[in-house]
Design goal:
The chain has 34 helices and 61 strands. Strands 1, 2, 3, 4, 5, 6, 7, 8, 9, 10, 11 and 12 form a 12-stranded mixed beta sheet that branches. The chain has a 10-stranded mixed beta sheet with strand order 17-16-13-20-21-22-23-24-26-25, with helices on both faces. The chain has a 5-stranded antiparallel beta sheet with strand order 29-36-35-34-33, covered by helices on one side.
Amino acid sequence: MQVFRRSYPHIGRWTGHCRTLATVAGLKEILRVSEEVTEALATNKPVVALETTIYTHGALGNDLDLEGIVRRSGAVPAVVGILGGVPTVGLTPDEVTQMVEGSPRKASRRDIAFAVGTGITGKKIHAGTTIAGTMVLARLAGIRVFGTGGLGGVHRGGHVSFDISADLTELGRTRMAVISSGAKGFLDIPRTLEYLETQGALVSTFADGRKGDVDFPAFWARESGVKSPFVVQDEEHAAAILLAQERLNIETGLLFANPIPEKYAIPSEEMATVIEQAVREADGKGVHGSANTPFILTKIRELTNERSVPANKALVQSNVERAAKVAMAVSRLVSEGSSALNTPNGTSRADILVAGSVAVDLNCDYTGVISLEDPIPQLHTSNPSHISQSIGGVGRNVALAAHRVNKHTKVRLCSMVGRDFAGSTVLASLESCGMDTSCIQQLSHDDHPGSRTAQYVSVNDANKHLVLAMADMDIFTNQSFTPLWATTIKSSKPKWLVVDANWKDHDIRSWMQAGKRNEAKVAFEPVSKAKSARLFYAERGLESLGVFPHATIDLTTPNQYELAAMHAAAQDNEYFADSRWWSVIDAFGMRGARDRFVNITSAAMTDAGIPQQAIQLLPFIPTIITKLGSEGALLTTILRKDDPRLYDAAHKPFILSRCINDHTDVGGVYMRMFPPVEQVTDVASVNGIGDTFLGTLVAGLAQGGQIQNLVDVAQKAAVLTLRSPESVSDNTYVPNLGTTRIYHTMASRRPDLSKDSDLSSASDHEDFEDSSDEESEPGPRKRQPREKDSDEEDLERFVLGDAAKFRANLLRDESEEDEEGRKTDAFGRIIDNEEGTGLEEADDADFFAFDIDLGRTPVNDQQLVIAPAASKPQVDPHNAPAWEDSDDERVTVSLANATQLRKLRTTEADDIINGTEYTLRLRQQYLRLNPHPEWARRAEEPPKKRRRRSSAASDSSRASDEAEEGDDFNTDALPLDRLLRDANAMNGTVSTRAKRLRPEVLDIQRSRDIPDAHQDITSLAFHPEYPALLSSSTSSLLYLHHIAPTAYPTPNPLMTSTKVRQVPIRRAQFSPDGKKIFIAGRRRYIHSWDIESGVVQKTNKIHGHQVEQKTWERFRLSPCGRYLGMIASTRKGGGVINILNVHTMQWIAAARLDSRGGIADFCWWGTGNGLTILGKGGQVGEYSMASRRFLAVWNDEGSNGGTAIALGGSHGPPLLGEDRWVALGSNSGVVNIYDRHTLILPSKDDELKLKPRPEPTRAVMNLTTPVTLLTFSPDGQLLALASRHKRDALKLVHLPSCTVYRNWPTEQTPLGRIEAIAFRTESDMLAVGNDAGKIRIWEIRS
């Protein structure tokens, strides 16, 4: 199911386009143009039309690779044909194959209406378009250039028979540049050229270096003996002729003849004899009309002993390649012809180049009579307001701020406006400000339809705070990055290039890469929450984003919402799975950083995730300044190894971390909170304050300023704009910006801002004239906490231990080097230096923390028990040493000088200790390596009082008591078997009576929700035996709830919770026997938790396959419990499923499916003896574990990109795992349900043959967004299908009737965006988890 957009007249690129469309208005409404072709035409990318009769009625085979030739030449192919009665531009290879296999007709201009009309009546006709038919449909879509083999013409004796090809008349009425090898050699070439002259069609032949007149080619021969009417020198010449034809509004076509390559040409004398014989035979047998050409071509093939076949292929491929070059030249001429880069300064050097938007701003300030009590404008009615118009746009504002803040800085704006009144106003305004407008392109509507000057409308409340904004920035998203912009950057040689997010995602990347190629620093302005995500779009075949120290972006200044959006986009598009990102993050050493975040910023800011998000984006953007409004600005930057701030005591409070490994470039992370320079009450306008901030900052950096010295300067400039009605204040001039530290006087016309400033440093109040070039000592800018009294300090030390030591322990680097220079951990084990996340060798106890208190309900993770750091042990009086050496106090030991002793340090600076402390630390290290056995701990424990308790809480309460009383509680060995058994006892006996569901109405009742909410939900799983529900989230949490809706006082109480440190859990699944839980996130390892013994096993490497398996999150356990399959990260050769033995966790097989885009999803057969794999291209493979090969591969009918698969039901084909049903989801929201019995073709008993393209039993079209979840109920009577891309997108399908239930869910059903679905083993309960972290339960009744 290829996604198409309707073709409308504005796609065309010529002024006379509408007149041609008017003659085929009926066809226009049903013409389908593929999304790729539509996007290419809208953005002036080169497009080449290709016919389909060469496939449907040709004899050249399927290996022409014409589309590949076009793509390798830099253009977009558009295969034209009629598929199922629908005229289509942009057919896919699969659709062409479908057409070829469906007995297609030929379609010229006269046949199009018949084929389409017949399709409307219900009879779907396939038709391959001839040259004439292709010209009609391609012109309707807005394509200029068409590459083909040979043109039809006037047949011999045509002056009598009137046998003249429709190709000639089409050239006389449809403007299209047709590149062919002339007319077919057996035609009457002189009369063909005469007829084209009568039709008014231009005929010209490529010179290819030949001088003077050249012959018009004769298909297989380079010369026909007839002179060409015109000669074209090269592709640029042909492109110029085509554009001239358009602008003159001449509607006839153009034929550019391209002689066959000399290597494959057949001499004209030899061909003349062959052609004469073939024509005589055709006349003798009475073959005329449309059958004449195929007959003669077949006869020529026979008479030349197949020599004509390679010649045919070579000339077609040569023509298509030349057509792509012509299309490229046309695209270049259109872009360059629209440019206004015509002033001498356009090629001069500049300090700052700003690539961004310029727009007409309209500010609407609410002035209602009740604005004092209610400052918000009223909805759904008109409001009184003060409306002002100005020139703005993010790029313009940034450039103007940089220009005004220092007159000596050369700033140039690269932008676009329309050739309209608003565009002229914008250019005049910029020139009046003294700005360079040489790089402002002014686009005409004729060459660039829809190119209006950008406009921005803001609606503000009575307090001048933004309520709503509307922006028309299509002029930037409709145009592509052209070579002209790259030339501008190269000639300007800027120190800084600022790119705003108003461009399209791939154009943003093109701007930045061009800047980097010319050694410019690059800054990114996010613009808005939605547009900021464009930086981290899904990379498809383009150059990846650079990572420090080779980052593509050097600086960005988002607000907290834009920062969150950028972080979410990077996470969703798997930027954080990049091994280069991990190497930088590992070098930061950010374990236990929360206290440091809180100390530098605040608890609220840390809880909001602002510093964490900035840290995770740092590898891609080494300097991030997060604008926090009235809270100030947060600077986060990577320090190189040689950065002096690492060793400057004045900057020590802002050193968040130091490099903990041997990374060659990372020295540490610098994080500093800058409070607001002033609290502003007299706000004039909020427009442009963020742009002013960035423009001032970049101006200072271009003059050699230090980033930490410029943040307050930029804040002050933003304050001036906040007080100004303009989008950039005209009072922001700062001389010597690069050497100035802090300025409170931005201009002599503005009063000293330090008067009302609340800055903490007195030195900051100096006037500019008295400021020194030397930096004063910076200090942390945060509120001082209230002094604690002695009782509070004693209580804090008693409960939490010594704060200084606690923080030092968090910062401790437990990895050292042994004598051979190998990396070792705290226990002397060698750390594997292979590429990974840095967590593969961590102890499992460092990852897991448990809470098993049944009597309380955790809220926001408050009761999750994290194992405390080991504190100084108290000496038991019963085990006191018999003798102590008093000299121990006087003995000193150096921990730093001895490699073996470094692991005893508590901080990096820890070195000299006395003998008593040395003995204590040795004892602690021994106990870490050799903990007391469980039997010894149990013998030493005092007897516990037995308490009466309910069976539901018996063992879990005891486990909780033991956890609270035992100081050395082993958190990685928590048996849950007894908890689950108690849960089963609480719930009573589950009915095993089979129930039958009605297909018309589903009897479903909402049960009690799960009381504990996650941050989000990533997976749900019911225990196969006990009434327990497992849930997971990316916040590293696992919850296990007892399903008991009637339990008191808390329904569905929490049984246990588990935190898997530093693993954002994407999937958690019970083993089929329910004895283990398998847990994986976006990491290179997986955990298996044995429920009976509490043992946690970690598998972190697939020997021989670790490169292709970068993450283990997409795993599935086989129903038999023997195998674990997971989708590999690689897409080379299609996609791979790696299969492991569950018991040994060793690799045993790999199932590789050749599918475009890789593997979308897979599902194990019900017997576990194989798996069904869905490719993103719609291919479905049936893989057998017995034979270790694919038994068959078939295709999902009409698939528009596979997304999800599910198997269900029973009594299916034994050879396919006995599953009766298979459901396949796609990007379009369609779910095809197949009965697996109908897939099998009759064959011998020992063979399995499947239909290559089976018809689905039912196509469910109730969803409109990509299907992300498919789940069958265990009894096979229900299929749940859902999409996370739309709220409440869930449907249930009854089987075997394949009926979609209409009575549930309703509009009032509280589903949200669905992330996970699970059915209970008895199929009587449905659990649904959403992105808000809520889990809702429904009971299904018979």
